[in-house]
Amino acid sequence: MLKERDFSFREHARVLYEIQAVLTEIRGLEKEIEKLDGVFDVFPSDRRAKDKKRARKSLDERIETLLMQLERIAHTNAQS
User: Residue 2's pLDDT band (boundaries 50, 70, 90)?
Assistant: First the structure.
């Protein structure tokens, strides 16, 4: 009986760590987005504006991917 509960506890802990890792990465990406203004606006130019837009788009896409991953984690564990 204890072994069954231990497995269940470990599985919940694994899922929690996985969720925390995704959320930590999202927070880090959001901080990078905030820093973009400082990096690209020092010497404004058309090229830097394009680079900033591309960088922001890439970071936003990564955040979207992580949010989808978070949804998959939630749905997978809700079905278990």
Answer: low
Distance from C-alpha of 53 to C-alpha of 47, rounded to nearest angstrom: 10
Q: What is the pTM of this model?
A: 0.79
Range of the structural domain that residue 32 is part of: 2-79
Angle at 1 between CA 80 and CA 17, to 5 degrees: 45
Measure the CA–CA gap between 42 and 50, rounded to whole angstroms.
14
CA distance 6 to 13: 10
49-58 own/partner pairs: CB under 8 Å, 24+ apart: none
Total structural domains within the chain: 1
Distance CA 65, CA 72 (A): 11
Longest dimension (CA), the chain: 67
